[in-house]
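Hi R.,

Quick one: here's the M14-type cytosolic carboxypeptidase sequence you asked about.
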Amino acid sequence: MSIQINAAFDSGNIRLIGIEGDRVDLEIVKDHLSDFYQWFHFRVAGAKGRTLTFRIVNAATAAYAFGWPGYKARWSADREAWRVADSGDYADGVLSFTQKIESDLVWFAYFAPYSMERHHDLVSRIALQPGVSHRELGQTLDGQPIDYLSVGDGPKQVWLYARQHPGESMAEWWMEGALEKLTDADDATAQALRARATFHLIPNMNPDGSRRGHLRTNAAGINLNREWHTPTMEKSPEVLLVRNRMDETGVDFAMDIHGDEAIPANFLAGYEGIPSWTDAFGEKFYEFGRRLAAATPDFQLELGYDKSAPGTANLAMSTNQLAERFGAVSMTLEMPFKDHQTNADPEFAWSPARCKTLAHACLDTLAGFIDEI
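And here's the predicted structure, written out as C-alpha cells:
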C-alpha cells in the first residue's frame, strides 16, 4: 500500500513534495494573503509497520524559524492523546522528525489541534450551563460566528479571550479549562469569582484562520493582534466587534491567551510603555504574575519578552490597548510549543491537559486578587 498524505480538513496544512522510500518531504503552506506560516497539521495513511522520517523543507523561512531548535512535533493515532515524535532535528534549514507508525492512520501537528467542530461543541456545552449567556457578536469574513459567553454577576469586568493567532491552538485548550472551571457548580473558587466579577469570554478570536490552517492571520491575511487601535469591518471585524462589546461593558482585568514558538516556558507580557503607565498601575500586573508563579510549577518569571521602553508601547496590540483605553490590568499569557522546561514532560511536552490546569491556576490566582484591581 502506498503512503498517503492529506491535509484537506479543518485546520489542516501541508503540501506533499515527494516520497522516497521512508523519507517524506513536505512544505508548510502560507497563510492566505500573507507570508506567515509555521502551523502544520496532516494525516498519514498506508504506513503501518514502517518508520518514516518527515522533512519540512521550507522550515528555514517560516515566520519564527528561530523557534525550531529544540522543538518536537506532536503525533496522535486517536486525535485525543498527542505525544512528541520519537526523534526530531532542525539542521540546514530543514525540520525533520521520525516516527514509527503502528496504526493504519496517524496524525501529526505543530501542537495538539483544536478544531472548529470542537469549538462549537464547547460553546454549545457551556451555553447550557446555569448562569451562562451566549451571544453571537457578528460574523467573520468567511461568515463564521464570533461566539461570546458571559457568566457571573459581580461588579468587576473580566475579559478572557484567546486565539487571535489561530495556529496557537493551546490558547483554546486553556479557554476550555477556564470555562469548565467557571461553570463548575461545586467549585468554591468559581462561586466566589462569579459573585465578585462578570466574566466575558471569547474562546476563539479567529475562527477563519483556525479553520483554514493559518498560523497567525484571518481570512484577509491580517494579524488581528495588530488591529486594536483602528480595526475595521473590511479587514478585522473580529477585533472591531469584540472591542465594541468591551466598550459597552468596560474592562477591569483582561488576559489575552497565546502560544510562543521559541521560549520553553509559560510567561506573561504586560503593558509597559503605554502613555498612562505608572509604577503603581504596573505593580498590579507584576503582583498577579508573582502570585501565579507561587501557585503552580507550570509558570515562571525568569523567561519572557523584553519590556517596552517608556512611551513606546504598540497600542495596536490588545494588551496595550486595553490597559490604555480602560485602565485595565491587562496581560498576554504565552504558552510554549515546546515544553515548560522547569516542569517538563518527556512524553507529551506542553499539552492540552496542562493548558487546562494552568487555566485553573490562573483563575485560582485571580480569586485572591480580584478585590485589589
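The first helix runs from residue 116 to 127.

Cheers,
M.
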